[in-house]
Design brief:
794 residues, mainly beta, single chain, eight-stranded antiparallel β-sheet, 5 domains, Jelly Rolls, 37% strand, 3 helices
C-alpha cells in the first residue's frame, strides 16, 4: 500500500473492525477469581469511533448488576453499573472525533481513597469526572463473562475499530505503561512489557481467523461472534486511514461498517466525503456495490464547500462517475455526459484515481469489463492522459474523495475502501497510493509548539514576574486577562519591549503608556512582566487569571528592500509562515511593503502605531476578491470594499500593496504589520459557510488545532478566539473576543479535533445559517505524514 512507518520503534500492524450491524464481539469467561479479585486491574486499548451520539459500549463484565465502559448518547465516556446509579464515573469531556484514534485507560485500585479508586485516562490525560455512589469492588478479572465490543445483554454493540487491548489483572497502572509522548509531542503506543496476572490478556488482532487469541502468554483466549476475516484492518494508531465523515452534517444519513458505508434513510440524494483531504500527489480508492440498487450512486471528489444534502455531481464543486449509465457528472441534475460503460451488478468494484498537482486536479474512473479491469474512455492515470476531468483549482482549495446516492432508494449502499481492508481489488496505477497518514508528505513542522503556543497563569502582583513554559523565545506576544475586563495587548520584538498595542481599541502605541503591567523582556521560554497601577495591570494583577498566545518570528529583524517602501525592520520566519514588519508610510497609493515570507501571505494585520486608527485586516478568504476588501480587528463590522486599503492588488510572494488610507499608509507615520501564510500541517487561513445548526459545519485544517480565530464577514459579529488550553477539552473551549475587553465566556461554540474544528452552536458569531466566516488556525501537531506519528483524536 506504500505506507511508511509513522515513526518510533514500536509498530501496530492491524486493528479489528467491530460493526454493530453484525452484532460483532468477542467474549471470555475466566475459570477463577484472578489476581486482582476485582479490586485492582488496568484496561488499556486504542480505539477509533464509528457511530457517535449513541450508546457504544466497548467492554462489559457480567454480574448480577453488570459493569461496562463505553460512550453515552451525549458522547461522554462512562464506567458504571448497568443500573446506571451507584457506583459510576462519567467524564466531563465529550469524545466525538471519528477521524483518528483515542488511547483509553481504565485503572481500578480500591485500596486508594474514593476519588482515586477508579480513574479514566484519554491520551494520557486523566479525565475530570462526575462520581455517583461509593466506588466499590468490581467484577473485572473475576470468574464471570467478559465482553469486548458489546454490552452484556447484547442490547448495544460498539461500532468502530479497536487495537492493542491490554488487560492487566492485579496491578493498577497509569498510561505510561502503554504509551509515551514522542519528541514531537504526540502520544504514541509502546509495547507493554510487564506482567499480566492470572486473568490478564493481550489482544493484538493479528489472527483474522481468531481475533480473540490471547497474546499475553496466559492462554486467556476469547471466542469471536459476528466477526469475519474481512474485519481485520490496516487502520491503526500508527497508520490512520480515512473513512466517510459523520461530522459533516448530512440529513437522512448515518454510517455503518466502520464508517465505510453510507446509510440513507429515505429516497434522497446525499454526498458523503472522506475524513482526510486530498493532498498533492497521486491517490486511489475503490467502491464496491452491495446490491444492484447501488448502481444509482456517483463516486469521485468534492470541494469542502459542497453542500452535503445534494446528489453528487449536481454542483459546480463536485465531480463524479455515475455508475447507472457510465456517465460523468458535474454541475448537472441530469444523467451527465458520456464517459464509459455502466456498473450495475452487486459485487462489482469501481476504482477512482486522482492526481493533484499544483492548480490541476485530474480524475479517472475504471471498473471490471468482461473479466478485466478497464479505465473508462481509454484513460491512463499512470501516463496522465484521457482523464474524466481535469479541474483547475486553487492551491489552497480543500478537496475530498466523495460520493453518494442519486435519491432513487433508501438503503445501505456499498462499501468504500481507501486501502484499510488490506489492499485493493485491482492493482492501482503506477505511483498511485492509498490515502493514509503515513503516505502524506513529511511535515516541515512536526511539533507546533516550537513556533506557536499558549500559556495560562494566575497573577500574583509581584514585579518583575517571569512567565515561562515555551520551547522558544517569543517574538510576538498577545495577552489577555481571562477573569476580568482588562484589554487585549500585543507586544513584539521589532517594536521593542514596553510598547503595547490594544486590539480592542484604536489607541496608538504611545497612548497605551508604559507605567503599568508590561513586557520588560522577551526571554528564552517566555517573558518578564512588570506591574504598575491597576489601570495598567495587563499581565500580572494579583489573583487575576491570564492567557497569552506566542509566535516565533526571527528576532529583531532587518530592513527589507523588496517593496517601494523599505521596511524599518522585517523579522520573517519562513518555516512557520510568519513575519513582523514595521514601516513608515509615504501616503502614496500603490506603495508596496516587503513581508519576507517567500510565499503569498494569507492574512495581514496592520496598525498605525502613531495614531488612534483602526486595525486593518486582509484575509485571502474574505470575498472572491479579497484584495478589494478589509476587516477591522477592533470592531464587529462586516467586510468593507475599499481600494484605499490594499490598492485592489493581491499580495505576492515578496510584497503586499497599500492604498493611501491613514490606517495603512499616511506619510511619515509608523506602522506595524503581522503577516501569516499557510504552512501545510501547521497553519491555515480559510473560509466556511455556517448552517445555523448545533450540528454545525466541519472545517478541515489538516492538523490538530491549538488556536482558532473566527470572524463573520457578511454581517456584524464578534471576532472569537479559541485555543487548546482554556479549558482544553470538547465541547468546553472557552471564548475571548479581540474586539472587546470582555472577560472570557464559557459558551460552547466549537469542537477542536484531530484534523480541524466543528461548529457546535447556532450562535451567529460562528455559525449563522448561510453566514460566511474566515478563520486563522495554528497546529498543536500535524494530522500525520511520512515518518510522523498521526495526531490522536480529541
Amino acid at each position: 500500500m506504500g505506507a511508511a512507518s509513522a515513526g518510533g520503534g514500536y509498530e501496530i500492524d492491524q486493528s479489528c473492525r467491530f460493526n454493530d450491524n453484525d452484532s460483532a464481539y468477542t467474549t471470555q469467561t475466566f475459570a477463577g477469581a484472578g489476581t486482582g479479585t476485582g479490586n485492582t486491574c488496568t484496561y488499556s486499548l486504542w480505539l477509533k469511533r464509528g457511530n457517535i451520539s449513541s450508546s457504544q459500549y466497548f467492554f462489559s463484565v457480567s454480574d448480577a448488576d453488570p459493569y461496562f465502559i463505553g460512550f453515552q448518547a451525549d458522547d461522554t465516556l462512562r464506567f458504571t453499573r448497568a443500573s446506571g446509579g451507584s457506583p459510576s464515573i462519567t467524564t466531563t469531556a465529550v469524545f466525538r472525533d471519528c477521524s483518528a484514534w483515542y488511547h483509553i485507560v481504565l485503572t481500578i485500585d480500591t485500596s486508594l481513597t474514593a476519588v482515586d479508586r477508579w480513574k479514566i485516562y484519554v491520551n494520557n490525560v486523566r479525565q475530570t469526572v462526575t462520581t455517583g455512589g461509593t466506588l466499590a469492588v468490581t467484577p473485572l478479572g473475576t470468574a464471570v463473562a467478559h465482553y469486548i465490543g458489546r454490552y452484556v445483554t447484547a442490547a448495544s454493540y460498539f461500532d468502530g475499530y479497536m487495537s492493542e487491548i491490554n488487560f492487566v489483572d492485579g496491578t493498577a497502572l497509569d498510561p505510561s505503561s502503554f504509551g509515551e509522548t514522542n519528541d514531537d509531542g504526540v502520544w504514541v503506543p509502546i509495547a507493554y512489557t510487564g506482567a499480566y496476572g492470572t486473568n490478564g490478556f493481550y489482544l493484538d488482532f493479528s489472527n483474522s481467523s481468531d481475533y480473540g487469541s490471547d497474546q499475553s502468554g496466559n492462554g486467556n483466549d476469547f471466542t469471536d461472534s459476528g466477526l469475519t476475516t474481512t474485519d481485520q484492518m490496516l487502520d491503526t494508531p500508527m497508520v490512520n486511514y480515512p473513512t466517510l465523515n459523520p461530522l459533516v452534517p448530512t440529513s437522512n444519513t448515518t454510517y455503518a461498517n466502520g464508517n465505510l458505508q453510507q446509510v440513507i434513510s429515505s429516497a434522497v440524494g446525499r454526498t458523503s466525503r472522506a475524513t482526510i483531504s486530498i493532498p498533492e500527489g497521486k491517490w486511489v480508492y475503490e467502491y464496491t456495490l452491495n446490491v444492484t440498487n447501488d448502481k444509482y450512486t456517483i463516486w469521485g471528489v468534492c470541494r469542502d464547500d459542497t453542500t452535503p444534502n445534494e446528489i453528487p455531481g449536481t454542483s459546480a464543486t463536485s465531480y463524479g462517475f455515475y455508475l447507472t449509465n457510465g456517465n460523468k457528472r458535474n454541475n448537472t441534475a441530469g444523467g451527465g455526459s458520456a464517459y464509459g460503460t455502466s456498473v450495475t451488478s452487486a459485487g462489482k468494484t469501481v476504482q477512482i484515481a486522482v492526481h493533484r498537482n499544483g492548480t490541476s486536479l485530474k480524475i479517472w474512473a475504471g471498473h471490471d469489463q468482461s473479466g478485466s479491469f478497464v479505465w473508462q474512455a481509454s484513460g491512463d492515470p499512470a501516463a496522465g492522459t484521457n482523464e474524466m476531468y481535469n479541474i483547475t483549482i486553487s492551491t489552497s482549495d480543500v478537496w475530498f474523495f466523495a460520493g453518494g446516492n442519486d435519491g432513487n432508494f433508501a438503503q445501505t449502499i456499498g462499501s468504500v475502501n481507501f486501502g484499510q481492508t488490506g489492499g485493493f481489488t485491482y492493482t492501482p496505477p503506477t505511483d498511485f497510493l492509498s490515502l493514509n497518514t503515513a503516505n502524506l508528505s513529511e511535515p516541515t513542522i512536526k511539533d507546533g509548539s516550537a513556533y506557536f503556543n499558549t500559556l495560562l497563569w494566575t497573577g500574583d502582583g509581584t514585579s518583575p514576574r517571569s512567565i515561562t513554559g515555551l520551547d522558544f523565545t517569543p517574538d510576538l506576544i498577545w495577552g489577555k486577562a481571562r477573569s476580568t475586563t482588562y484589554t487585549h495587548n500585543v507586544w513584539d520584538i521589532v517594536r521593542g519591549v514596553s510598547k503595547t498595542l490594544r486590539t480592542d481599541t484604536t489607541t496608538s502605541e504611545a497612548g497605551n503608556g508604559t507605567a503599568g503591567a508590561d513586557v520588560t523582556s522577551f526571554d528564552s521560554g517566555g517573558f518578564t512582566a512588570a506591574v504598575g497601577t491597576v489601570n495598567f495591570s495587563w499581565l500580572n494583577w494579583n489573583a487575576a487569571t491570564y492567557v497569552a498566545w506566542f509566535w516565533k518570528a526571527n528576532g529583531a529583524g532587518s530592513s527589507n528592500t523588496d517593496g517601494t517602501i523599505n521596511t524599518t525592520a522585517t523579522s520573517a520566519n519562513t518555516t512557520a509562515g510568519f513575519s513582523l514588519v514595521t514601516y513608515v508610510g509615504n501616503g502614496t497609493s500603490g506603495a508596496t511593503i516587503g513581508h519576507g515570507l517567500g510565499v503569498v501571505p494569507n492574512m495581514i494585520i496592520v496598525k498605525n502605531r502613531d495614531q488612534a486608527d483602526a486595525w486593518q485586516v486582509y484575509h485571502s478568504g474574505n470575498t472572491a476578491a479579497p484584495e478589494t476588501d478589509y476587516l477591522v480587528l477592533n470592531t464587529t463590522a462586516a467586510t468593507v470594499d475599499n481600494v484605499n486599503r490594499w490598492n485592489d492588488t493581491a499580495p505576492t510572494s515578496s510584497v503586499f500593496s497599500l492604498g493611501n488610507a491613514v490606517e495603512v499608509n499616511t506619510s511619515s507615520e509608523n506602522y506595524v504589520a503581522y503577516c501569516f501564510a499557510d504552512v501545510e500541517g501547521f497553519s491555515k487561513m480559510g473560509v466556511y459557510t455556517g448552517n445555523g445548526s448545533a450540528n454545525g459545519p466541519f472545517i478541515s485544517t489538516g492538523f490538530k488545532p491549538a488556536y482558532v480565530l473566527v470572524k463573520r464577514t457578511d454581517a456584524v459579529s464578534q471576532w472569537s478566539i479559541f485555543d487548546n488550553k482554556r479549558e482544553g477539552y470538547n465541547v468546553d473551549n472557552d471564548v475571548l473576543v479581540p474586539n472587546a475587553t470582555a472577560a472570557e465566556t464559557t459558551t460552547d461554540y466549537l469542537d477542536l479535533l484531530s484534523n480541524g474544528f466543528k461548529a457546535r452552536t447556532t450562535d451567529a458569531n460562528v455559525n449563522a445559517s448561510g453566514g460566511t466566516y474566515v478563520y486563522m488556525a495554528f497546529a498543536e501537531n500535524p494530522f500525520g505524514g511520512a515518518n510522523t506519528a498521526p495526531a490522536t483524536a480529541r
